[in-house]
Write a sequence for this structure.
């Protein structure tokens, strides 16, 4: 099943860069993972996924353009295409080019010419006119560039107005959408997040209580769960203490997405299409 054809339900993908993170997703209700090609190239992560792919509900490969660009590493589009074909990846994004919508569009057309059907990616601060091409051409779309963007809501309203004005169903994925307000305010078909890893990186956990996240110390959580790092059998737990903490944090995001889906059933999106005069 296409991960972006989700009706009124929003799927949450957990972005993974290590095998222990993917293993933590497997222990939870929603077993959806997104892996960037930048990290998928690591032999251990690639081997782990290929060996365990039937244990996940959905898999989405991101091109990794953000990581490649941040580290100044050049990405080979033909290597990306070869990997997709060799591993028979079904759902994958276009190789987008940060800050260059024309090059992104050219990559989309190039991948199509190689008998692939990538999910096109429109960056939120891109000239809105580039969106028209994808809305005419495609029935699915990813919106990216939101992690460090300004005026996110203003730009998203413009984008969603165009999407909802089309006389066809277009399934939309939101890259890096982990905040509850963004998840609730737009009719996404799927979103993804790596925020769950903060429990390991920054010793801060987020517990889902009363329909919102509440911050707690990771050390307090360990006491609450009665997990002792000294007694932990790392041979039976992939990722050790980090794996256990990540699995717990993912369980909290599972509760969040269940809440989002309950609230989405009650919503209409008239307010997004009623703002025609703004655009």
């Amino acid at each position: 099943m296409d991960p972006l054809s989700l009706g009124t339900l929003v799927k949450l993908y957990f972005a993974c860069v290590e095998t222990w993170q993917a293993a933590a997703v497997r222990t939870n209700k929603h077993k959806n993972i997104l892996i960037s090609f930048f990290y998928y190239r690591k032999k251990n992560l690639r081997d782990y996924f290929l060996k365990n792919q039937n244990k996940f509900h959905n898999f989405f490969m991101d091109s990794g353009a953000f990581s490649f660009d941040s580290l100044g590493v050049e990405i080979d589009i033909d290597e990306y295409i070869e990997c997709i074909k060799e591993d028979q990846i079904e759902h994958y994004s276009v190789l987008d080019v940060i800050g260059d919508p024309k090059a992104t569009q050219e990559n989309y057309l190039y991948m199509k010419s190689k008998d692939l059907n990538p999910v096109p990616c429109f960056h939120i601060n891109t000239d809105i006119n580039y969106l028209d091409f994808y809305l005419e051409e495609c029935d699915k779309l990813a919106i990216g560039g939101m992690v460090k963007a300004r005026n996110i809501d203003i730009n998203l309203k413009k984008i969603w107005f165009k999407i909802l004005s089309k006389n066809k169903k277009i399934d939309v994925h939101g890259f890096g959408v982990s905040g509850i307000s963004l998840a609730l305010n737009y009719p996404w078909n799927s979103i993804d997040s790596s925020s769950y890893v903060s429990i390991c990186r920054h010793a801060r956990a987020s517990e889902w209580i009363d329909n919102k996240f509440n911050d707690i110390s990771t050390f307090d959580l360990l006491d609450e769960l009665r997990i002792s790092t000294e007694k932990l059998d790392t041979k039976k737990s992939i990722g050790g203490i980090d794996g256990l903490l990540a699995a717990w944090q993912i369980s909290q995001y599972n509760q969040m997405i269940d809440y989002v889906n309950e609230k989405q059933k009650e919503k209409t999106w008239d307010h997004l299409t009623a703002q025609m005069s703004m655009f």
